[in-house]
Each structure stands twice: as structure tokens, then as C-alpha cells.
Design the sequence.
């Protein structure tokens, strides 16, 4: 049987075009994955009230472990770390948190330079790494009206943390941000991006809402792109009754808040993932969180 070579070539060409077009039309778009969670944090409020009470300590740590938390931030430290008589109890707690209950890090929460200096002195007194603080968390709401420590004061505190007399005293730092002052332009987000290891962005709503945080995250992404940096971002959710307590009671998990938030972010503004490193979430605070999810 003889074939018309030109006809065969033409038919083959047409078939190839049809196949290519068909494949193009049926191409499946690969969804953008939610960044892997490497930070699961919680504030431990009232810590100074139960430090040294072994049963209460173990109850709190066992609950944190059960809920998947890996990063603890301790409140109420000022009257702990400025009293050397409490050093052993603090060391035992931090070591137990890491070695028995699987915590990756324990940070010291303070709102003053003096507070951080005391925690540095505590760290200096310890020779076992598992007994030391791993990070410093600044708790200072400078954006409020007439704050005790305004933004300039906060900058001074951050400089204090970043430039210790002994370089070995420098620890990763994190700061909690509520709102930026529009009158200061880009000064605040640029300073934080340039000087902080982690930035905790609060989403204090009754359910995860990316729209509530979009402006602040966009400002930090712009600053990060300008400065050539990619800071770690931790989303901060509150388990207080005015915010997400009922949401957590209903869902019986804390991680779902982060997953829902990130899904909204990816749908609305996925470009943020190019400039900011979203590493996980943090919950405020233990007392409210524990009452929401037993």
C-alpha cells in the first residue's frame, strides 16, 4: 500500500497541534503549599506564681506537650530572675521543659532593659545549656496612647539586646507588633525587619482573618524587599474570651487557626511568601488556652 507522504505529514502535524492544545487546556494548576510549621509557641502567663510547685509545673508542661507546642515564652520573670534564690527552681523548670517534655526553646519575656539584663545574668550563671533561655521576647505595646515605653524607647531596648557587652550574651530576639504608626511612615517596619530575628504579628480577632493583618504584613514585606532581608514571621492568636476562645473550644486544636489564616493569605496575597518567612504561630496565653482545650 502506498501512502501520500505530504498527506501523512499534514495529518501528523494537525494531530500534534490538537494534542498540545488539549494538554494546555487540561493543565492542572499546582496549589501553593502552606509553609512548613517550625514554630509552635505559647505564652506561659502567671509563671512566677507556680514556679517551684512541681505538680503544677508538670501539669502545664504535659498540657503544652499534648497540644504540640515546642516554644515557651515565660511571663512574670522580673521577680524571678532578679532573685538569685529562685535560680535553681528556674533552671530545673527550663531543663525539664526541654529534656522531659520535648520543648525546643524557652524564651524570657520582658518589657524593660533591666528585665533582660537580669535574664542575661541568670543565663551567665548556668553552665548547662538545657538550663538557659534560648531567646528574648519583647513585650511592649508602644503603639498605644501614652505608652510607658514609646517606639524610641523600644528601639533602645532592641539595640540593648543586639549589642551586649559580651557577644556570647546575644540571643535570638522576637517582638510582638500590634499596629504601626502611620505618622512614622516606613520607620517602624524597616527598623523591625532590620533588627529582629522574629516578628510576632497579632491577629486578635474571633476567628483567623488575614484581612485584619494584611496592611501590616504588606508593610513589612515592602521593608524586607527594600533591605534585602526575609524575617521570620509568627502569627499571634489570642485564646482570651474576647477573641478566639470560643473558636478554639469548637475546633479542639490550635494549629487549625494558622492553617486557615495561611489559606486566606495564599488566596489573597501569595506574593507575601516571597518576602516574608512564615514559620508558625503563637498563642496568648496558657491560662485561657488551657480552659479552651483541656
Sequence:
Amino acid at each position: 500500500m502506498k501512502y501520500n507522504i505530504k498527506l501523512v505529514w499534514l495529518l501528523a502535524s494537525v494531530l500534534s497541534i490538537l494534542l498540545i492544545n488539549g494538554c494546555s487546556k487540561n493543565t492542572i494548576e499546582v496549589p501553593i503549599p502552606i509553609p512548613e510549621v517550625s514554630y509552635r509557641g505559647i505564652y506561659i502567663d502567671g509563671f512566677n506564681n507556680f514556679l517551684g510547685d512541681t505538680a503544677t509545673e508538670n501539669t502545664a508542661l504535659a498540657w503544652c506537650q499534648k497540644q504540640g507546642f515546642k516554644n515557651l515564652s515565660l511571663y512574670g520573670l522580673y521577680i524571678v530572675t532578679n532573685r538569685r534564690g529562685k535560680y535553681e527552681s528556674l533552671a530545673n523548670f527550663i531543663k525539664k521543659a526541654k529534656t522531659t517534655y520535648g520543648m525546643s526553646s524557652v524564651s524570657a519575656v520582658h518589657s524593660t532593659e533591666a528585665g533582660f539584663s537580669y535574664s542575661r545574668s541568670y543565663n551567665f550563671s548556668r553552665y548547662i545549656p538545657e538550663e538557659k533561655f534560648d531567646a528574648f521576647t519583647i513585650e511592649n505595646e508602644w503603639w498605644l496612647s501614652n505608652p510607658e515605653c514609646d517606639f524610641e524607647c523600644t528601639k533602645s531596648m532592641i539595640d540593648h539586646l543586639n549589642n551586649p557587652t559580651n557577644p556570647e550574651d546575644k540571643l535570638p530576639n522576637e517582638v510582638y507588633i500590634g499596629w504601626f504608626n502611620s505618622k512614622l511612615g516606613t520607620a517602624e517596619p524597616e527598623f523591625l525587619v532590620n533588627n529582629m530575628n522574629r516578628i510576632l504579628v497579632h491577629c486578635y480577632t474571633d476567628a483567623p482573618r488575614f484581612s485584619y493583618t494584611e496592611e501590616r504584613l504588606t508593610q513589612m514585606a515592602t521593608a524586607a524587599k527594600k533591605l534585602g532581608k526575609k524575617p521570620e514571621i509568627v502569627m499571634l492568636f489570642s485564646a482570651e474570651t474576647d477573641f478566639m476562645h470560643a473558636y478554639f473550644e469548637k475546633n479542639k486544636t490550635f494549629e487549625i487557626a494558622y492553617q486557615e489564616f495561611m489559606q486566606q493569605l495564599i488566596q489573597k496575597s501569595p506574593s507575601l511568601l516571597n518576602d516574608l518567612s512564615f514559620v508558625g504561630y503563637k498563642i496568648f496565653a496558657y491560662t485561657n488556652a488551657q480552659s479552651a482545650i483541656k
About this structure: Residues 162 and 170 are 6 Å apart (CA to CA).
